Amino acid sequence: MTELVWLAVLLPLVGALCNGWIAATRPHQKQLVSVIGVGVLVGAFVVSVLVAFETAHAPDAGTKVQLWQWMPVTERLTIDLAFLVDRLSVVMLLVITGVGSLIHIFSVGYMRADPGYARYFSYLNLFVAFMLVLVLGASLPVSFIGWEGVGLCSYLLIGFWFDDTANADAGKKAFLANRIGDFGVLVAMFLLWWLVGTLDFVELSARAPAVLAVGGTAVTTITLLIFLGCTGKSAQIPLHVWLPDAMAGPTPVSALIHAATMVTAGVFLVVRTGVLFSLAPATQVVVAVTGALTAFLAASIALRQNDIKKVLAYSTVSQLGYMFIGVGTGAYTAGIFHLVTHAFFKALLFLGAGSVIHAMHHAAHAGHGHLDAQDLRNMGGLRRTMPWTFVLMGLATLAISGVPPFAGFFSKDEILTAAFARGASDPVYLLCWALGLAAALMTAFYMARLMAMAFLGRFRGGDAIEAHVHDAPWVMTGPLVVLGVLSVVGGGLNLPSFAGGSHLLTHWLEPVTAQAIALGAPVEHPHGVTEYLLIGGAVLAALGGLIAGVGWTVRRVIPRPADAPASRGFARLLEAKYYIDELYHHVIVAPVLWISRRVLWQGVDQFLVDRIAVGGTARVAQGLGWVGSRLQNGQVTFYVAIFVVGAILILRTLAR
Amino acid sequence: MLLGPSLALSAVLFAIGVAGVLVRRNAIVLFMCIELMLNAVNLSFVALAQVHGVSGQIMVFFVMTVAAAEAAVGLAIILAVFRHTQTVDLKQLNLLKG
């Protein structure tokens, strides 16, 4: 079955082509589109499950599934189109096809009325195909196909409703920010080929420790460049700016691409090349500190956002930061663990938000009212009208906040414990731990605020609209229930020993991560009192944040968006997202525009090319023509005189 | 055999012809000057035939034939120009200019 893993990639790809063809020829065949779009994903999921079962008994190094020779560059470097099926890629495979299937099913309900239904499913299928190439690739170039492909699909889906310029701009912004990162990955690939002579992940891990000195410039540069790619794809500071804007796309897209799968590709890549990162302690510090800063700053921004999707977007950025604390600390399993649980509860939160937006939007239409369906200030009291969504999103909130025994608690705790443990030898990791803990507190707070603003209190959109608000149909609520169950029990994947578990995921991933962990700095994991104090602190932060968030929100009178007074001071700074977009605008965008307009357009194109080169040629020809026309003055005598002069000159020359 | 004086006379006649073409404005006078130049050449042909054999004298007959034809065509053109513009002043016949 492992040999047939390419089926998992091929199915969504065929689905994308079929749906694309339907979109081009008969866009109203929505039932056919739904069957194809969801069917191929479920098929891919079945393939993944079968592959996973076989991998459980397979040799530890994993199986390389060779498809064909792709680039025979030299004797030393031939790149095959090959897939690597090992325990890491199987985990990703299951998450992508599993959560992906649920989100596809949800999309059937969410996008039902959209005229671009077939196009939407075509893009979504294509995304899954590329994402699977990314995680299955046996070498960096193959993964890079997927890496670029998911970027393309992300661009297409963010700008899905492209007739609004803002959406198209958001797509462009995401694409450009990703390009900066992709540049880093490309350069890293060239360096790796130059220095190590292979791009195959397995061979790379085997050869790199012998070729690259620990902490050397080479490996540090390479890993920093790879990490640059990760900051782009996984929306870490300083390239995080695209992800909040990416919320312009349909909400299931945000759930699938910008929460559960694509944005975690950076974390996956770090784990895949974990040996390199373990060889470069300096880069590990950069990764962990970047992750911690991102986790902290994004969480603080989420505190003051009023758009339900913006809160979740910053929450995603923040949670991705956690994953990078994990992988930066060398706790690769913890990073992947959080990736998986985050995929569950964040997909659930986004789909829940999608249900809320869907309900608000339709209620506003039915009630003949006008309101921003995504603004939390227009909601309130939805627990009465949307009980299912309320309960399920509540579970996800508990999970993301890190309340035991929900999924997020175990994964987040593992990351923080790992950072704390590494802090014993390297104090900078203690800073990461502290920032992470503070971010956990804020996470609980902003999630509680979101839930309280949306579901508690009274509806602020008016009675006429409230009468039409109701839970989504089962095709949408069903996937939420499944994700809800996963969010509750997901922690069981890697239950730590203090909770009576056996670190299932850690042992499962051991063949993949063992080498990288062995190369890294030895870390003594805290036991006994320290461990319980750490857990206690995390739980306290979660509960404190939740209670404070609910209490703070419920006591306040929340004004309608139109009547909201301008906030001041620090709150304003948070609402403006630390003015980072403005900073980038003034430091990068505006100068680039200025250079493009003044220098390149007006200077080079208009002046040099148009006036000097093109206009100059015309002027020279014109001048020569003027001289010629002066000679031809119509006076026969003049011609004769010139003729005589010429004849005399010729005679003189001949007489010499 | 008067070769030198003959060639000298030929050169003087040719120079007068050139000067006439350059300075006179009347088309008919100009035409006569061209004939003068042709005949100056004829003279030098005849003179040099004494030294180089009769081919020069044969060339003179060619020149005279061509000159006759040229005179016929040229005068016809001048006549046509005069009918058209009422003048044969070359200063005023300058329609073909850049």
Which term fits the overall shape of chain A?
globular
Number of H- or I-type helical stretches of chain A: 26
Which class do the helix and strand fractions of chain A yield? mainly alpha
Quote the beta fraction of chain B.
under 5%
Short description:
The complex is a heterodimer of chains A (656) and B (98). Chain A is built from 26 helices and two strands.
Describe this structure in words.
The complex is a heterodimer of chains A (656) and B (98). In chain A, strands 1-2 form a two-stranded antiparallel sheet. Helices cover 74% and strands 3% of the residues of chain A. By secondary structure, chain A is an all-alpha fold. In chain A, helix 2 packs parallel to helix 4, helix 3 (87-110) runs antiparallel to helix 21 and helix 6 (165-195) packs antiparallel against helix 8 (217-233). Chain A is built from 26 helices and 2 strands. With 98 residues, chain B is mostly helical. Chain B is 80% helix and 0% strand. Chain B has helices at residues 3-23, 27-52, 55-85. In chain B, helix 1 packs antiparallel against helix 2 and helix 2 runs antiparallel to helix 3 (55-85). The radius of gyration of chain B is 16 Å and the shape is elongated. The N and C termini of chain B lie far apart (52 Å).
